[in-house]
Write a structure and sequence with these properties.
Number of helices: 5
Number of domains: 1
Number of strands: 0
Low-confidence stretches: none
Helix content: 55-70%
Shape: elongated
Largest sheet: none
Distance between the termini: 4 Å
Mean pLDDT: 91
Radius of gyration: 16 Å
Structural class: mainly alpha
Oligomer: single chain
Amino acid sequence: MSVWGALAGGVLGTLVLTTVLRAGSELRLTRIDLPFLLGTVFTDDRSRAKAIGYLLHFVNGLAFALLYDAIFRAIDHAGWWLGTLLGLAHGLFAGTALVNILLPVVHPRMGTPASTANRLALLEPPGFMMLNYGLGTPVLSLAAHALYGTLVGGFTSLAS
């Protein structure tokens, strides 16, 4: 196994994940925009938020690739199918705990179920599995994360 394989898979996987989610948004299958969601933590300027968010999304993609690599090394096995399973777990974590529970607590521009009517939020809270952004969002997000994991797992195993 090679960390370089994991990072190469992380770059390609993040490109694919981002493209799938962006295409889903353009096709009106979802309203989720993860880079925008990330960028608005730092600015309320929509254009800057997208630019910052894309940078953060790619950094996160590389960080998660390193986490996947650590798991592969711990169990001494990497592969496409294992990466797919990790990607599904990653997508479930992102949709349940990360953006549903943790992000609204720390995000300064995201509404929460406890927000008052006089508090203006730039972003609607995603809700469980990001369902507030459309019924297609959970399926699309899980598929995109599974593809990400498949690529990281596959590239890691090929670089052995």
